[in-house]
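Recall the central idea of this unit: under ordinary conditions, the amino acid sequence of a chain determines the structure it adopts. In this exercise we apply that idea directly, starting from the sequence alone.
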Amino acid sequence: MTARLASFFCLLVAVPAAANVAASTRTPAAFTLSPGTARTRSEVLGEKLSFDCSGAEREEACRFEARYLLRNGTSEAEVIDAAFLGIRVREVSVEFNGEQLPVAERQVDPPESAPGTGDAAQAPPSPEEALGRLARTSVERFGFTLTLPPEKGGELVVRGVVRLERRFLPSGYEWPAVQARHVLLSSEARRATHWDIDYLLGPIRTWAGSPELHVTVRIPSAWEVGSSPDAYARTRPEATGWQVRREGSQAVAERRLEAASAPEWLNIALTQRKPWWIPGGVQLGVGARLGDGSRFMARLGYQLAAPESFLHSLSVETDFREQLVLTPLTQYATPQIFIIPSLGLGVGVPVQVLPEARPGLRLLVDLHFGPVGAALSWDHHPRLREGSDTFSRLALLLQVGL
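Accordingly, the structure predicted from this sequence is:
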């Protein structure tokens, strides 16, 4: 099941000034994924949302800050019953115009299963239940009260920490060549790692106004920022819509959205790229040199990938009698897909050490099903000096990767 990381937003709904503040006018419609109608006389002029994930690799958490520019253009003060709802968030604080506001202690509302068609006559769900059903996890609620004076504005700032949780992207029945060929020594854990932040945009439409949302994400420079095209992050994230600039050892990604046309749910996917090289393992091979003067041959080598589809190896071959060859080689190898084996095509430089030093050219094709495979190689040694001969050799070896 896809792991989701952080879904949170600040929802502010008005309570008329003459009414009892405890009698909140919050309604379930404020939490559903629909445009709704404005519930406040005051309006949101703009929102700046920033995430500082520069220490995410060490802490597996990001610090967030949401700044709302508000204005009450009416002649009456407006008392606003507010709530910050989050998933896996902590250390939430709220301030208005630089003044800290009291925040109710965190309340956890467990998720509920979505009602079926037979539940139409039931009472509507509470706001927290509605979000819990959407996010399929427990919702944490931080309540506070805000008063906007008549014909004045101000800035509301919400800060906190969101804990990161890794996204699970199943590889299906496909394995990179280096992993399939070296199941003992090559590690799958060195593949790219993904985390998600989900930000619900729909509730801002319960305010008057049509603000612009400016999103900023600060990450280590080796990371990437993107978004998943579907709400459940079952696909790999895409960088569409994000602009990235480098600032020393960090990178800053930015994106701008209009509240009126923005998606209901904004996904922010953080990707820690896999290393440019992946350790492989040892290769053992036994076979024969074909053609005239055929004889037994053995091969011992080490192989790694850089990048994932290109395998690089250094091997030594011998007939245990008079021939010794050292060969650096690079090959392109396809991944193994279920029962379809991995195919490799490579070129190398075989250096014959015994019986005499002779460099040459090697062309290789191999086929591997898991760690077991076969390799066919053709070596050509050109004439280098007067009195030496040009010769070619063909060899077929069975290989096992560790």
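The longest strand covers residues 278-290.
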